[in-house]
Structures are given as C-alpha cells and as structure tokens.
Amino acid sequence: MLLAIGLTLPETPAKVCMTVAEAQAILVGEAVDGIFTTTELLADVSAVLKTNRLSVPIVAVGPANPATGAKAIRLGAMEYLTEPVDARMLRALVEKFSANQRTGGPIAADARTTALLEQARQFANSSATVLLRGESGTGKEVMASFIHANSPRAAKPFIAVNCAAIPENLLESELFGHTKGAFSGALSDRKGKFLQAHGGTLLLDEISEMDLGLQAKLLRAIQERVIDPIGADKPVPVDIRLIATTNRQLESYVAEGKFREDLYFRLSVVSLDLLPLRERKGDVLPLAKHFVAKYAAANGFKTVPELSAAAAEKLEGCYWKGNVRELENTMHRAILLCGAGGRDITADHVILSPMSLQHMPVAVNNENARASITPAASSLAAAAYASGGATTAFVPKRLAEIERETLLATLAYTQGNKQYAADLLGISVTILAEKLMASGLSA
Which of 63, 163, 364, 440 has a CA between 20 and 30 Å from the CA of residue 189? Predict the structure, then answer.
C-alpha cells in the first residue's frame, strides 16, 4: 500500500490522509510500501517513523526550490518531486514502490528457467518454508512473489523485509512489533511484519545478514508459530508461510559461526537455486524487450522501440555480472539514449558496464591476425638474412614496439580500465604501470 500524507496524487493507488496523526495510525497497523508527503509535514512524518522504528521510503513534494529540495533529502526523503508533479516521474516511483504488490511471475523463455518455475509451482501448494539462493539481481524476490501468487495464501498479504537494509537495532521491532511504552518513544502499539503477513507470506530477503541473537527468536517463530513483540506480556500466535533469500553460501556462514545451524536446516526444507542470467541466455532478449516496453511507457513514448539485430547480439553476448538488475538498468539507459523519435535501439545505445566487460572474452579475428603477423615475420626474416643472422640489436626494438601497441590496444578495448587490461594481459596492475612508464605512456 502507498500512503499520501497532506496531499492527493491523481491517478495513483495511494491511500490519502491529511494529518500526521491519522497517518501514524495507518503506519503502525498496516504494511506501507512508500510515503508521499509535503515538505511542510516531512519532519513530523520522519519523526513518526523514527519513534515507531519503521523503515518506509519517503518522497517529498514541494516547490521548485533547490534549497527546499536539499533540506528534504537531509530530513530523510529518498526523492524530491517539484510542483506541479511530473506524471512520468510519479508513475515510475509508484511502480518502484508497488514492486511487492505484483503477483506476476518471472519472465521465462530459457528451458532451465521454465523447469525451475514448474518446480516452484509444485512447492507453492504447501506451507513449507522455502530458501531461495542465487546471486544478487537474479530475481529472488520476483520468484518469492510467484510462489505466493500460486499458493492457497494468494489472497492474503505478501510482506517483504530486507534484512540487510534495516539497522540491527530496528530489525527486531520491524519483524515482531512492539507494545505502547515498550521503550522510550513507543507511543502506540505497532504490528510487526509477522502480524502484517498473518495468513499470507513473509519474505525475509538476505537473511544471512541477520544478527545471531535475532536468529534465535526467528527460529522460535518458525518452530512454534508464535512471536514475542517487544514489551508484550505473552506470545502472539501467527500464521505465515516463510520464504527466505540469500546470495551467500550459508554453509560457510554456519561453519564460521555467523549463522545458526538449526535455523539453516529449518529454512532449507525446500531450497531453490536461481541461475545467474549468463547461464540462461534464452531469457536475455525476452527480459530486455520487457524492460524496453516498461521504460518506453514510463518516458511517454508513443511506440515501443525495436531491438536491432546488432543490439540483440550484443545483449546475448554480455556476461551480465549484475544479472537481471544490470540488464534492466542497461535497457533503461538505452531507452534514454534512443529517445522518443521512433528509432530502433542500436548496438551503440547498449552500453555495457565495465564489471561485465572484464569477464567477457576478447574477440579475435584470426584472418586479420594472420594478415598482420605474416608481413611482420617476413620483415624480421629479411632483416635477419641481411645481417647474417645477427638479429640481437633488432629484435628487442621490434618487441618493444609490439608491446607498446598491445598495451594501447588493450587499454582502448577496456576503455581505460587498468585492472581489466592487466587481467587480459595476464600481469598485475603494478607491472602494467611499469610497462606503461617504460613505453612512454602515462601510468
């Protein structure tokens, strides 16, 4: 749910309240994904969140004044919208905040992804705890939403908590809630995420980052289906289906004493491994086209641009170190570069990140290589013959020239990324710097 405090937002699904007191009653009792408020009420809204130990992103709305916008950001707003509010920007923020409310499943064309979805669909019918494992950006939260949407709990809430994004001292209250007067500033009872998800599904994202002490309380909640809100006199029963995600090797965390072994076994009743995007190439273009359509609409395009053959080839050949999240950012950038003029997205619009580039193999044209090597070899042979085979004075000079050209070509390929260039050349950055100095190039 989205909440608008002190203002109305046309054509958005936000619930409207005109006072901070009214907003507080909603915030402590319901799951709120994002807040829109005026600059006049921002300080009071931030105070309510702090007092009740709530972690909800805020967008402030106010005049086109740089000083006012800067003050809003200092007070805790994640975004500042100027009046009159730009409709496209508003739509993009609503889409971002409403991510947890979507029930659509992952876009799947690759055979391995469709097989994983079918497996997830089978497990969805039970109430078994599910552990989703995979690299950052592989779509674990989308998969969790898919499991919820295909479960008997689909009509009930789907609540997500990012354990890595909430400070340790706030996470307990965020999960289990608190009673009025439980601590200084607790002015009212507050439902935690467990109670907000009652009857539905609770997603604990990046559970490996949870403090060990809190892991013990979580284990009790999973085993006994009761929670202990801070300050409560007695346990409170809960009915939830738990899904957890991690991008870590939990087995290593258990061995190092960073994660409870008993909690590990409780979480991994069902374990699903999400493949990185580079290992499911069949999903790349369908996902890319989905993001093109999404950001074309967000930017007011009248038509959705097509992907040129060269752009598609570039996308399919990318390593995608950042997985689906990186692909989404790449297509968003491509849309902005393409513009709304009805043009296709070309390979020039697809700008790949250095992190993915450094893992991609260097393309070598063998014919061109042979064509360049042959004259060089002939020239070297001729020089050797002319000097009676005494090539000692000639070869080092020629090798130095070749090395200098190789250094320049490699740095051009890596767009100046010295670490990537050193990796490609099989040397350390320090040696690369020395060679650049020796070749008269700036290190």
Answer: 163
